[in-house]
Design a protein that fits this description.
It is built from 5 helices and 13 strands. With 287 residues, the chain is of the alpha/beta class. The termini are close together.
Amino acid sequence: QGRYFHRSSPHKTQMPLLLVPSVALLGLVLQPPSPAARSVRAPRAGRVLLGWGPDPVWSDQSVESISDAGEGLKAITIDAALDGFGKGGQYLQIREPGAEKAGIFAIASAPGASPLEFLIKEQPPSDWSPGTGWLTGASAGAALEMSQAMGSGFLKTDDALEGISTVLLFAVGSGISPIRSVIESGALDGKSVELFYGARTPAMMSYTDKFAAWEELGVSVTPVISQPEGTGWEGCTGYVQDVAREKGIADPKATALLLCGMKGMAVAIKEMAEEAGIPEERVLANF
């Protein structure tokens, strides 16, 4: 708890508190498959997983559709059954066929929904990551290899929201992806839910076409723009944690926070929760 991934030092001791969903977070050193590899591959020894979960079991899949989802973001669907996917906030690994490195991506669609949906940020390759250009620049039908679902999502136990009447959701940029999954999963039904969703500009905000449907599910949506100059934006401005702090938390003892975004946001939200009297164990991330 409280430790974050540092790009220049991808060691197990640097496991993150949260998963930044649409960036290939970690270049995993994997053996390339043999030409005779079957569509579902058994885990091989010698893989370096660095604390990200179980050995991936790869299956051959393809991109069903790809479309723009905001500036620098792509909405990608994969029509495939997914073992182990039961909670909003889970993720999986995707790699180019035959590649040694895989990216880790949060699942945007709800458990049981078809096809699988992802919100992928365009990211250049680096020493520790394959980048996402091969995927965000792909066309429908492009081949890929996909693992099983991983992680425990935001609500890691069945009683995670026991005694909770209010849930505040925080997302920045592509961090809305796993938040969308938990909203649409039904896991928050019966709670008073408010989403604070931030982006630099309105053009960089995804899923605006889903806000009305989320409101119908009982989620109050507060979009926040941090760089509104010249955009004509008339809504909330600044940072999600500041907007939430200004609104205040009516009943801290019955409130839980779910978050996915950058480190600065996460730190600020934990500080806000502490100031309000919300214990750290009720500040929930998807990793």
